[in-house]
Amino acid sequence: MAEAHNIVRVAGVARTFTMGTQVVQALRGVDLTIKAGEYLSIMGPSGSGKSTLFNMIGGLDKPSSGKVFIDEVDIAQLDAYELAWLRNRKIGYIFQTFNLIQVMTALENVTLPMTFAGASQDEATEKGLELLGLVGLRERHAHRPQELSGGQQQRVAIARSLANTPAIILADEPTGNLDLTTGEEIITLLKRLSSERGVTVISATHDYKMLNVSDRVVWIRDGRIDKIEERSELDITVGGIGAREA
């Protein structure tokens, strides 16, 4: 079987913010490649730069220097229309706070990206119901977010992220607002989608349970990649984690 191609390539990316008179270096020359179909977790303490790197990959922010490539396209060179097309068609987003539209039903939330992409109402409805079925919520399609539990809302958000058959799903702390059991269910669901659909999942997370399903883990510290570990190199135990001893 042919080796998977690099779907994301980050080359020498730095990001500097100016806050009053203070200059903050959020990223300091990061290099990273991510293969198609990979499940990658980006981990690090608050302020380490992981969310900034996540936003760079998603086209939500631009580097101060360096480049981010999606399928070898330098996204900094895209105009506003092209970047919007990329974010709508190529990338699905999952947020810690779900970001569902409260006045819309679960089905309407899922079909909204399809409508933006030009799908007919019938096409969007059929696919939306299929995706809600995929995450176990077809019977709740007419419910609004306030009528759903936190875990159910995150499942709707996952279905929405798949609306336009993206190659990449970016999950920003997807279990951050969920209890332990529900968080584990969401992690298992994301892994299943990655395995069955060949979707690349990139997660910025504090949740060590995510390591159980990750192909690789990128550890960020002080705006730099501290280390990158394969799943087989991790020693995951209750209450702690460390590299396996040789």
TrEMBL record:
GO molecular function: ATP binding; ATP hydrolysis activity; transmembrane transporter activity
Gene3D superfamilies named among the record's database cross-references: P-loop containing nucleotide triphosphate hydrolases
Pfam family, one: ABC_tran
UniProt key word Nucleotide-binding: yes
GO cellular component terms listed in the entry, alphabetical order: membrane protein complex; plasma membrane
Keyword terms: ATP-binding, Nucleotide-binding, Transport
Domain ABC transporter: 8-246
Transmembrane parts of this sequence: none
SMART domains listed in its UniProt record: AAA (SM00382)
Family: Belongs to the ABC transporter superfamily. Macrolide exporter (TC 3.A.1.122) family.
Protein name from the UniProt record: ABC transporter ATP-binding protein
Species whose genome carries this gene: Solidesulfovibrio carbinolicus
